[in-house]
Amino acid sequence: CVQETGTWGNHYRFFFKPKYLKSNFLMEQSKIIYQAPENSILGVPANLTTKNVPEHSVSNIIRIEAIYNTPEKYIDGEGVVAGWARTVRLQANNTIAFIELTDGSTHDTFQIVVDSVVANFEQIKKCDVSTSFKIKGKFVKSPGTKQPIEMQVNQNETHYVEIVGSCDPGTYPLAKKFHNPETLRQIAHLRPRTNLIGAVARIRNNLAFATHLFFQSRGFFYVHTPIITASDCEGAGEMFQVTTVLPESAEPINKVKVEKTTQKVDYQHDFFKKPTFLTVSGQLAVENYACALSNVYTFGPTFRAENSNTKRHLAEFWMIEPEICFGDLFDDMELAESYLKFCIKYVLDNNKKDIDFLNQRIKKGLIDELQHVYNSEFVRITYTDAVAQLEKVVAEKGVKFEIPPQWGKDLGTEHERYLTDEVYKKPVIVYNYPKDFKAFYMRMNEDQKTVAAMDILVPGVGEIIGGSQREERLDVLEKRIQEMGLALDGYKWYSDLRRYGTVPHAGFGLGFERLVMYCTGVENIRDVIPYPRFPGNADF
To answer: DSSP assignment of 375-388, as one string?
Structure first.
C-alpha cells in the first residue's frame, strides 16, 4: 500500500504484480481511496465554491442580484438600476407607477415605486411589458413581504426614470401569459426573457464556471481542440462535412471538379486538400496534450449529423472531456463522480432562486433528487453483473423490458433506469463492457472480450457520463483500428503517442446539455441550449 500526496489530495493505492507480467510495471487493483485536501469540497478550495456577487457590471449601474444579496447595505442610500419591465401598473388614481424590473442577474424582479412628481411621468404611464429603463432613486425597506427592499423615485431634482427603449405590447410576442416550449423555440431570440429560459441560462452559466473551477483547482490544463478534423473519433460516420468544392447555390452541380478515372470528388481542389468534417469529439486531440501535460480537459462544441428528433439529441452540442495520464479506469471513475457531484453542489448553492423556481414549476422533487445524488456513494458494478441482475429480475420477478437484457448487447435506457431507480436507488457506475459495441481506443481487458469502459448512470435519466481507460499498447491499438474498418494512416499521429513514451491514461466525456437538463429538470434538450440545431432547424 502506497500513500501519495498530490494535486488531487491523498490517494491510497494497492498494487499487485500478475505472474504473467514480465515488466516491472505494477497493475492497480480497483480499491483506491480518494481524500480531498483539507478545506476543500471535492478538491476545490472551499472559499471558491461560493460565487462572488459583483455590485456593478457596467458603469454605476447596480445589479439586482447584488441588491438582494445584501439589502441592508443599500437601504436609505441612492443608486442606479437598469433593466426591462416585467410589469408596469398604476395605482392611487394613476399618480403612482409600480415597475417590476429585471436585469437578468437573478430570478427575482425588483420593485420600483415612481411618484408623479417625476418629470416624464406621463410617458411612464404609457409604458408596458419589456420596456427598458435606467432609473435612479432611493433604496428603502419594502413595506410588503414579497421583497426586503425596493426603490422609491420621488424627487424630480435628483431622481429620474429614463425610458431607454419602448415596447409595443400589441406586437410583442411575449405577452404576460404562459408559453409552451415549442412556441418559445420559434422566438429563440426573445425566449431568454422568460422565467424558464432565464433560469436555465443562469444555471448553464454556473455549470460552465463550475467545470473550469473544478478542473483548474485540480491542476488540469484547458486545451482548445480543433473543430475541423479529418478523423472520426467514434467511428460512427455521422459527421458534417466541411468543404469548399460545392458550387454556389445558383450554380449547377456539374461545376464540382471530379477525378477523371473514378468520377469521385477531387479533393485536391478543396480547401484542405482532403475530406474534412466538423468534430464529433475533442478526445483524440486532447490526448496529445495529456501525454505531455499529464492532466488536461477540453470543453467545446461538437457536432453529429444524426437524423434524430428525440428530446435527448442535438446536431450541435458541447462536450466536456478530461484526460488523465498515469491513471486507470478507477481513477477515471473517481474523477467523474467527483466532478458530477461538484457541479450539482455548485448550482444548489449558487442558483437557489432558480432551482426553487424549477422545483416548483418544472419538476417536483428536483432539489431532493440533486441532493440525493450529491450525498450518495456511487455503486460500482461490472457490465456482466449488471446484465445478470437484469436477467434475474426478468426470470424471478417477471419484470418486462421492451428489449430483453442480453450479454453482448448494449444496455438501453430502460435497463439503466431499472438499475438506478429500482435496484440500487442511487447512481451506478457500470464498467468493463463488451468490446464489440465500444470504440477502438478503449483498453482491451485480459479476457479479450471486454474493454475498460465505464458509464455513470443516474436515477431518472440513465447514462450521463461515459469514459474509458485508453489503449496504450501500440500493437493492440492498431489491431482494433483495423477491426473497426478504419484506416491506420488516418490515426498515425494518435498511434505515435504509443510509439514514443506510452503511458496508461484514461478520460471521460459528458454532454454538457445533458448535465444542464439533469440540473434543471427540463425534459427537452432543445430548451437548455441557446440556439438548438436539429434536423430541419438552423434558425437564428
So the answer is: HSPPEEEEHHHHHH
